[in-house]
Amino acid sequence: MKKKQRVSIKDISTELGISITTISFIINKKAKNRISDEVIKKVEDYIKKVGYKPNTSAQTLRTGKTKTIVFMAEDISDPFFSAVAKEMEEIAYKNGYKMIYCSTENDKERASELISLFQDRQVDAFIITPPENFQQEIQELIAQKNEVVMLFDRRYTTTDHSYVILNNFNGAKTAAEKLIASGCLNVAYVGLASDFSCMSERLEGYKDAIKNHQSQPISLLLPFKDVKSKAGRTQFKNLLDQHKNIDGILFATNGLAINGLKGLKELNKKIPDELAVITFDDRDLFELHSPSISVLSQPVPALATELIKGTLQLLKGKNGPNETFQKILPGKLITRDSCNLGVYD
After folding, report:
1. pTM (2 decimals)?
2. Which residue intervals define the domain HTH lacI-type in the entry (predicted)?
């Protein structure tokens, strides 16, 4: 089958008798107040008719921009990250940008290889949920000043950089306080053993909430590899066996909560009669679970909006060459049956 010949701007110019410069202005949306509406419509109608597609390689060579943003999530299949990705894609598209998604699986080597790959493809910006022990690599990426770098879901306190995150401390504190208000006397925290800022801030928020309520914190910090595994579930059940007085649990992630709920079912623990439960990050299954599970929900649309807004501002240089974009957004506690109150926010 013979390949269809690509239509060029020169071809359009010859066919319509309109200068290449004028057509270029119209294609690149720079014709307003420069070219008549009649000419704009004539060119746009013809472009649509012949199916003209801009030469992206030429545009990249000319402008140094590919109009592409990469979102490197911990796990793009996780409902939280995929929901944020979907929201970002819509906003980016409306602003003339395309998005690429990938997962780091919390692996430093994999993350470094992906960054190198996308740099070779000359992407304009990275939005990254960095894996553990990745601060030096992020610092080096920022220092190169080749791409805009925005961190999501976690940040570094010793490096000046752009980020959009949840107010993790307040969220965990609010959730733990709700468990206490539900009548819990011994609230436990189940989180990740990691250097992620979100995890340390959630743990500190929990500790602050219970400091005047129970004699000491009760916590289980699992390695990332055990979050969804039988080994992680065994460690969780061991925690309950060692602390038989636990009557409330705050899970730091939805993955931990799902595995924990499986463990509670295996132990025949009744929610909320024996244990009240709250988890970070809402999912449909938490509402459908019997009893329904209370959550500290992250504001997905707002997070996505701020991520793209901040990235575009930095791409356009609106914040200055050395400026950053930093946002901390509040979560929302949604109280369901697992808190023993039967009150819905």
Report:
1. 0.78
2. 7-63
